[in-house]
Amino acid sequence: MKVYIKTYGCQMNERDSENLAAQLKLRGHEIARTEAEADVFVANTCSVREAAEQKAIGKLLRISHKKKNGFPIIGVMGCMSQNRGSEIVKSVPKIDFIAGSRKTPYVADYIEEIAKRRKAGIIPQDPQKGERKKWKHNDAIINIEDDETSHNLIKLHDFSKSQICANISIMQGCAMKCSYCIVPKTRGIERSRPMEDIVNEAEILANSGAKEIQLLGQVVNAYGRGEMPNVQGKSPFVRLLEKINKINGIERIRFVSPHPSFFKEDLIAAYSSLEKICEYAHLPLQSGSDRVLREMRRPYSAEKFIKIAKALKASKEIFSLSTDIIVGYPNETEEDFLKTCEVFKECGFDMAYIFKYSPRMGTVSAELEDNVSEDEKERRNQILLEMLKKQSLDFNERLVNTSQEVLVESKAKRGLGNLMGRTRTHRKVIFKAPEELIGKLVSVKIISAGVSAMDGVLE
Ligand code: SAH
Ligand code: SF4
Ligand code: F3S
Q1: Fold of domain 403-458
Q2: Where is pLDDT greater, at 384 or 94?
Q3: Single pTM value for the model
Q4: How would DSSP label each residue in 380-429?
C-alpha cells in the first residue's frame, strides 16, 4: 500500500506520524509523496482549537469525495479521534477507521485489515451512486480504548528522513487540569516510558548520526512523576537528562513542553551542570495576570514565572525563551491583558505562540461565556505579535558580530548554495557552505539579523 499521512497539531503528533511511517515501511508499504498517488489517506488530528478539527474534517471530506471502489482507504487517528470517536462517521460517512490517541501503534494493522477487505471485494455502497441512502460504514474499525502500554511502542524512527535533530516521546497523556484544555481528554492518563528504553532509543539515534535529541511530553518535566523516585533531590526528568548527556555523539539536548510548576531548582541547576542542554527553554506562560492564571487553574503566579525565567537567563550569557499565550480567555479584561504584555516584555521572549481562546466542549472553561469578542481577541493577538517581532529582532541583533556554534540541518530554502542551521539558542542561521557539512557542528560569524533568521559566514 502507498500511504499518505497528513499531520495536524503538535510535535508529539509529528512524532506519532513518524512512528507510523517507520512501522509501515518495515511491513513493506510505501509512504506516498502526494495525496493523489495514495491508496490510503491517514489524518493524524489535533483538537486543541476548534479550527484544527474543522480543517481536518474538511480535508477528510474532500478526500472521501474522490473515493472509488473503496480506495483510497481513509482513516483518522490522534486527538480528534479520541475526542469525537464514532461521531466522526456522521461528518465523514466514508471513513474506514478511527484510531484513538493510544491506538497509534495499531494503525498499520487497521490499514492492512481494511485493505484485505477491500481487495476481497467487501466495499460499502457509495451513497452518491444512489444505491443506498447512507454509506454503510458498519465495517469501519473504531477503537478509542485506553491502552496501558502503547506509549512504550512509540520508538520507531524513519531513517529516510533527516534524524540530525531527532525527537523522542518520553511519555503520553497529561494529568494537569488547565481549565481551557482538551489535551487531558484527548491524550488520556499520564504515563512515562522506562528510562532505559528512552536512553536506548537515544543511543540508537546517536549511532545513526543524530546530533540533537529533543524530548517530548505534554508536561515533559513531570516525567516519571508518581512512577519513579526522586534521587538525592533530583527528579526523574533531571536524572534522565543526566543519562542522555552522557551519550557519545549527542551534542545538544532540548525538551518541550515543560510546565512552570515543575521547573524546580534541580532542573535550573541542570542547565549549568549538563553541558549538552541548550540555552533555550519553551516555558508556557498562558497569561500574565494572576487572576486569569487562577481561573485557568495554572498553579503559579506571574511573579513565580518571572523568577524562573530570570534564573534561566542568569545561568548563561545568552538564553532564549519562548512561550505560549492565550488571549481572550473568558472575562479577560484590558487590565489582565496589559499584565500579560508586561510579563511578556520582562521575560523578553524571543519566540512565542499566541493563541486566541477557543472554547472546547467538555472543558471547565467551556461552561463560561466566551465573552471577549473576536475583534478584541485579534487586537490583543496583534499587539503581542508586534512585541514579539521587536523582541525577536533585538535578540538576533545581539548576536551580530559574534561567533556562534551552528548545527547544520539542511539546505536553505532561499539562496543558491546556502545551508540552514541553528544556534544553541534555536535561532535560524543562513550561510554559504558545502553540503557535506549538513549534520555537522560548525562555527559561523553572524553578519546580519532579521526577525526570523540571521545571515552568517562560515569561519
Ligand atoms: N502541554 C503543553 C501545551 C499543550 S497545547 C503545555 O502545557 O504547555 C499548546 C498550547 O495551546 C497551550 O500551551 C495553550 O497556549 C494553547 N491552548 C490550549 N487550549 C487552548 C484553547 N482552548 N484555546 C486556545 N489556545 C489553547
Ligand atoms: Fe493542556 Fe495544561 Fe496539560 Fe498543557 S499542562 S496539555 S495546557 S492541560
Ligand atoms: Fe493537538 Fe493533541 Fe497535540 S490536541 S496540540 S495534537 S496533543
Answers
A1: OB fold (Dihydrolipoamide Acetyltransferase, E2P) (2.40.50)
A2: 384
A3: 0.96
A4: HHHHHHHHHHHHHHHHHHHTTTSEEEEEEEEE-SSSTTEEEEEETT--EE
